[in-house]
Input
Amino acid sequence: MISDGEVASDVRAAASARSRELRRRRRRQVTLAALLATIAVLLAGALAADGVRAQIDARLRAAGAGANSGLVSVESEQLSLLRAITFTTGVSAALSAHSSRQLDRLVTPLQVNSGVPMVDVVLPDGTVVLAVRSKGAPSPVATRRGLQALRRSLAGAHGNRGGRFTEVVTLQGAPTLLTIGPVVVGHKPVGAVLVMTPLADVLARLATEVGAVLTSYSPEGLPLATTARGTPPPLVPITASQLFNNGKVIIRETPGDTREAVGRLMVDHEAETLLGVAEPDDSLVTELLVDLCGLIGLVLAAALLAGALLLKARRQAGEDDGASE
Amino acid sequence: MRPSSRPALLGSAALALALSLALTTEAAAGSSRAVIHPSAALSRVVLNYEAPLTLPDGAPVELAPLEKAVIAAATTDFAYLRYESQDDLGGFEPAPIGRLIATVGGRAVGKGPASAQLPLIGKAGKGTTVFGLIPSSPTSTIPARTPTTTVPKTVPTTTAPPAPLHIKMTNSHNAAPLITAVNMAPGDTASDTVVIANAGTVPFTVTLQATSSNSPLASLLQLTISVVGGSQLYTGPLSASGVRIARLGVGQSIELDVALHLRKRAGNEFQNQKVSMDLSWTGQG
Output
């Protein structure tokens, strides 16, 4: 025979077991919900970072296009000075007479007026008759003999563009944006004018215009000139060669948490070097901020939920006590 | 030599050695430094609209007159520098073009056809005046193509059998070489014109296929096809296929300028080299 006390004990044990099972199930549900919420927060952070990176990449591409457009302005200014010198009355006669003093009188005011830092006036054999430099510009040299551009300019004096063109050349170990044109007497070139700006200074000006760090790389991927504080890492030679020949743009991550878009630097409608356009990559900060805010939100939500459950349990306990009394 | 002068001599020698070592180190560092950074003296732009320009010796600047030929030269240069294609941007993409707007007190003023690429937004008058840029959808910047289906087709009403349709395309050079360029110097361009005509009975679309012989020189040559007095249709390597040229109606023709440009970076190693190229014009109805 089973007593009332034993029955009550069995009922309490069954109720306790059900309650434990309920608690276990609730704990599992809470753990699963917390896990899913954490994953959702991390995914949101990653998505936010992707969005930031996409925005940076779009800005870099636009800045690269802006830098190439800006270079046309620099080229136009150099051509303007070149024309002013080669077509100034008296320059051809002074060059024919190898008169440095007369050239100085005619050319120096034009150079001062232009803001282009370097001008050389040379004979057909490359001998420098006059060199004008702004303060801080690379020093003059005695001859430009062997410069391919000089030969081409003199040969093209009667061509469509009158032998005037612009290209990037290496002078005294530094890449330089050179605009060159012949000085002609009748039909005979008697010399040439070289108007030059160090490429690093051209990049510095363009970097101010587009608001990004600019680096010029050789077609082999070696950095030539940069507005960055340090030296950017070289490009993989195969990648550099493909970029130079195919005209595509790649985005790469460089040390110091920066992203860099690399395409081509165009001069006279032709690729002269590769151009890197870089900006700080703050996507990681965004990702961390989103993660942190999300996790703080989760902790707050969990605390609120726990508080509410505790309150409910206490209220239930109070009601049970009242009923038993 | 006096004994007292020995320490001074040793000191001088040590100083000279240290100095030469320092100079050598600096020279070595200079020679290994491949990357050039901007010069502060040249990069900083200083604008001065008031003080007269002076020469380095302080004398006032006097400019000599220009020859008249400078006008033609300037015109040529500006025409050459003009933007030709997106290739001029080095593969980079320009920022999207947006419509400029300005609002005063919440009312739009000055909204018009003006457009800009700058990501512009600004406020003035404690926020009562706002000016900015509404980004246009990318498709709105692409000029619409002329609809080809608006021309009503004549429906044959007679029972007579239709005339045989045939495509006949003629080109003004036939099989003769279009361009023969000898002794091209780096930077040179050789060009000629060709007329493609529709001498058949149906309209067709002309496409171009270009193939070149396997020569290192081919990589340094750039082919450009453009309509004479019109737009550029193709610019790129000597090998290309499926380049759409034009749609020609019956009896219509198009005059094309075909140009070959030898890139300026071609070195002496390309001297005495040859390359040949075939241009195939295909008409498809």
